[in-house]
Amino acid sequence: MSRSALAVGLMMAAVAVPAAAETVYVTLEKDNAVAVVDGIGGKRVKTAKVGLRPRGIALSRDGKQLYVAASDSHAIQILDADTLKVVGKLPGGRDPETFALSPDGKRLFVSNEDDNQLTVADIADKKILKQLPMGVEPEGVAASPDGRWVVCTSETTNMAHWIDAQTLEVADNSLVDGRPRAAAFSADSKQLWVTSEMGGNVAVFDVASRQPIKTIAFQVPGVPQEKIQPVGVKLDDAGQWAYVALGPANRVAVIDAKKLEVKDYLLVGQRVWNIAFSPDQKHLYSANGASNDISVIDLESHKVTKSIAVGHYPWGLVVAP
Fold this sequence. Notes:
The chain has 321 residues and is mostly beta strands. It is 4% helix and 53% strand. The protein has 1 helix and 28 strands. It has one helix at 3-16, and strands spanning 23-28, 33-38, 43-49, 54-59, 65-70, 75-80, 86-90, 96-101, 107-112, 117-122, 127-133, 138-143, 149-154, 159-164, 169-175, 180-185, 191-196, 201-206, 211-217, 233-235, 241-245, 251-256, 261-267, 272-277, 283-288, 293-298, 303-309, 314-320. The chain has a 4-stranded antiparallel beta sheet with strand order 3-2-1-28, with no helix packed on it. β16 and β17 form a beta hairpin.
């Protein structure tokens, strides 16, 4: 083959390969809407109206539908992921703020802050399976990847409640520091991480014993301690890194998940609420409520690469390929 023919062939092959894409869905609490963002291109593509005060958001396991907690509409709305049209709703109890999807994609576990309870909803049948009493002001919910546990935090009771995912009964309660917000399990289901907004830290638990391993505190140079308010938390699948959104500190903490030590603080937008990985875990996105944008973090370099305006008061986000 001649050099010219080879060059043409390579050019044609390059054209045939689609560009990388990451679609970020963001709930906009004050716009009563969901924004669709091209994460790689760095621009908002579309905004669609949903119910009142949307916060928690997740993709169905097949990626075809979005579940959105419309808190003030007292429902979990189901949206077509392509058209963003509301195609149904799930019973989520009163004031559903956030939720966890079961590993098999069949159930939602929803926190109901006003009623101090956790609602378990069957997605296919669109019915409530059970409602369990929690502590005062339940907030964060996490489901272990192995299907064994669901944990719900209670902000005012300062507890993480361990629910047996099979029997749907509360099996244990763990005390944590002030105002626990979010929870996340490690990919191997061996650890649970719980952020405490007023405590300014994240507690790491051994799941087998349900006992604390370590409490990791945060101290950001130049930032008053009262502004360091941990909220969202994510752990990568490799078990190497964990990331914590620090609220009005306007930072995302980078933690060595093996050594349980803080390695860095990344400056993002204002009042960072929640964070989400891209599917390949090469990027992390943060929802910055007070600056009305999301930040994009390159996880290879641990650098913030861009900020994307999305609308008023972004709260939750999820990323699809």
